C-alpha cells in the first residue's frame, strides 16, 4: 500500500468510452492503479458503451459533445465546472487525463491536485487536425496548455520529441512510458476456437490480416489497392479486415470498383472459397483470427504506440507496417531514430518497415508494398524468423517492465 505521504485518490479522465486503443489503455491503467490507489473513472458522457469495464467507480459528467459552436462552448464550461465539483468531493490528489479534449478540461478544473496528461498520438502528424480549428489547436491551445500540467506522459519516444521540438516544452517534465501488454492473456484468447464458418478461410496458407477501425487514420483504402495488385501475381491470397467504422461504406464501394469479390460479415453473406477480401467487422476476440493468418499488415498513416501491432506480434505473426509517426519504428527497429520518410522496404530487427501509403502511393509506393508482400508470401522461412522475433520483442512491453514507471510519475519521483 502507498505510504502516508503518497497520493491515495486518483481520478482518471477520458472523453468517452468505446473500442479505441486509448480506451483500452485507459482500462488497463485503471485496473493496475486500483491495486495500490483509490481509483475513480470519469467520462464526459455515456454515449458509447464501456467496451473495457474495469469494475472501478465511474462518474458520468452527462455533458453532450455535439451541437453548434455556442453549444460546444457551453458544454466545455459545464465539463470543467462539474469535474471541479467531483475533484473536490473526492479529495482528488492526482488527475490523469487521456486524449486532448480531456486534457483541457483536466487543467481548467484544477483544485490543487497533481495533473498529468497522457498523450496517445502524434500531434504534429495527426491528419484530423486541419482547417482553422486545427490551426488554432496547433498554434494556440497546445503550446499554451501543454505547459500547464505537472507532468506529461507520452506513449512513444517520438511523441515526446515532437513536444520538445515543436512546442518547446521542458524535457524534464515529459516522460515516455510505452503502452503495456498482457501476453499470457492475449495468447490464451488466441487459442480459443474461431467460428466454424471461417475455418476453411484460415486453413489456407496465404491469409493477410489487419485490425483497426475503418477510419482515415488506419489507411485501409490504399491497402485494398495494394491487395488487388498482389492478387494478379498470387491469386490464392486472401485479405481479412477486422474492425468497423465510419469508412465502411467507402471501403466496400472501393472494393467493388477494384473488381474484388468480397464478403461482409454484417450482411450475413453466404461464405464460399471464391472470396478474396473479407470484412469480418468488429470482433470481441480478434486474436483467435489474427494468430491463424500468415502475416499482419499495418498501413496506418499516423499512430501513437499501436496496440493492434503489438497484439499481432504477441500472437506470433510476422508484421509489415508503415514507418508512420509514431510507434512502429520504435517497436520494430528500436535502436534507430525516426527521421526521414523511407521510400523502400526496410528489413528491421523485429519486422518489415514500409513507406507510407500517401496520396501519391500509386506512382511508386504501391509497387514497393506489392513486391514486399509477394516476397514474404513466397518465403516461409523468413516469415517464421520475423514471427519469432516479434514475440521476443513484445517481452519488453509486459506490465511488470512498464507500469512501475507510472507509479513513479504519480508519486512525483
Automatic annotation (TrEMBL):
Keywords: Transferase. Residues 19-184 form the Glycosyltransferase subfamily 4-like N-terminal domain. The keyword Transferase applies. The keyword Transferase applies. One of its GO terms (molecular function) is glycosyltransferase activity. Residues 200-334 form the Glycosyl transferase family domain. CDD domains: GT4_GT28_WabH-like. InterPro entries: Glyco_trans_1, Glyco_trans_4-like_N. PANTHER family: GLYCOSYLTRANSFERASE. This is Glycosyltransferase. The lineage of its organism: Bacteria, Pseudomonadati, Bacteroidota, Cytophagia, Cytophagales.
